[in-house]
Amino acid sequence: MRRTPxxxxxxxxSTLTPxxxxxxxxxxAKIFVDRAxxxxxxxxxxxxxxxxxxxxxxxxxKEPPPVAYHSLASEWRPVxxxxxxxxxxxxxxxxxxQPGQMLHTLYFSCVRPEAAQQGVMGxxxxxxxxxxxxxxxxxxxxxxxxxxxxxxxxxxxxxxxAALSYRDFFFDGVxxxxxxxxxxxxWTELATHKRKVPSDMY
Length: 202
Known about the structure:
The chain has helices at residues 18-21, 27-36, 77-92, 120-134, 147-155, 180-183; strands at 2-3, 43-46, 52-56, 58-60, 102-105, 110-111, 139-144, 159-165, 189-196. The chain is of the alpha+beta class. It has one domain (2-196): Gcn5-related N-acetyltransferase (GNAT) (Aminopeptidase). The strands form two sheets. It has a five-stranded mixed beta sheet with strand order 4-5-7-9-8. The chain has a four-stranded antiparallel beta sheet with strand order 1-2-3-6, with helices on one face.
C-alpha cells in the first residue's frame, strides 16, 4: 500500500463503474485523477513488481469540483445529475461541514478484476481512515456504486446516509440507468456513507 506521490495515478488509473457503462470514455474520472495526483490523500495498492492493483481517490469534501468537470461532454449530464442528487440528499442530513472536517472517498476508487476478492479494497478503506486521522479530519464519507462495496463500507463502520436507486432515477423524464441492475445484479444504487474518524481526542 502506498500513499500517492505526485503523478503516480496518471498512467495507472482505469475503471469500469455502473454509470460509466452508460457513456463512453473515462474523461470524468481523469479530471479527478489528475487532481488527486497533485495531492497526498489518495492511495494506490502496488505489488512486489510495482504493478498497480487498485486505487482509492480521497479529497476534502469541501473541495469544489475541478474546473473541467463543468465542461464535460453532454453525455455525462445524467451522471453529474445523479451525483448531484445523492450528494444533495447527503448534505441535507448534515450540519454545516467545514473545510478540513470530512475526507471524501470518491466513487472512482476501483480494483483491477484480477485483484478482486483479495481484501484489497478493505485495506484501502482502512488505510484511508489512517490518512483521515493523520490529516486531522474528524469524519469520512464514501461514495459507493455497487452493493458489494456498500456492504464492505458498512462492515468498516460506515452508515449508508443517502442513496439513489439506479432503476428509479429520472433524468429529463427518462430512466437513464434503468438497465444497470439487469447487466449486473450488484449495481442497484449510488450511495454516500459516513463514519467518524478514530481519535484520541474523543
